[in-house]
Amino acid sequence: MNVFIVQTAIMIILALIIFYLIIYSKSLKIERRISKYSIDSIKNTQISLFDLLYNYYYKLINMMSNKLKKIPFLLNYSLRYNKYISYDKENEVSTMNFVSNKIVISLLFVFIIFFARIIEGRFPGLLDVLVSALLGFFLIDIYFKIYDYIKKKQIEQDLLNAIIIMNNAFRSGRSTMQAIEIVAHELKGPIRQEFKKMHLEISYGLSLDVVFERFSKRVESEEVSYITSSLSILNKTGGNIINVFSSVEKMLFNKRKLKQEMKSLTSSANMISKILLIMPLVFVGIISILNSSYFMPLFNTSLGNVLLFIIIILYLLYAFIVNKIMKVRFN
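Below the sequence we write its predicted structure tokens.
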């Protein structure tokens, strides 16, 4: 009875939302029809529906962030997202906004699972709520892990160009500030934002080796760590910065050339390993299409569950070993 009442309430809410969208769509059509015979105002103060929703959501996040800042644990937890704030939005976005977004997404996932279970005719269990809440809470972290990987690859790709530009700037008599500023203007992508941060840090009085060390911690790249070590040795022992950057430029060029050669030499082996990883999944899909009940004993019986667990462990172990064998490290 309680489930039926909740289902009825949800259906009424959905009907009201659909009715509102239909009325809103008709009003937009009438507005477009009348706009042909009217003169638009010079100053347009109208806000679209999505912009209005975004503004309300942004105000909600800021309000939550102001409340959550009073909790020391969450304030320390939010500092890990400081590196994801771009240079031009440091004054607009707070690290606590990320935590607030995680909480809102977690509640949204709980609402979705609650809505889905109600449609099925039953209330969600504690495990459903817990899993959906954790998945929603860590969804942003998963996104940032993927973002970090892509960003790291792009920075490593553009790092040689940045070192070449800095080395040429030093040879033409430019200062460190000017060399970093040139890189920030000439290059695009994530490395541009990083060099803008480095330019700002140097303007605050930090030395070049400290700035590159902070850059290395943000990016976690071996190539940037090598540059940081070279600059640290230069700062302690003295020397010519042009020679140091020339050596770094030569090292990065040779390393990229070696990577390209190794990629061409191992391309066939990588292709074979990928085919071997995909083939079991392809066979499972083909057999499932031909006979949908073929693999059902693996899910319906206790022995099948054990065998399925062993198969998954062996497959993951095989994928891990193949990846380790085929991976080539450049030191």
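The mean pLDDT is 80.
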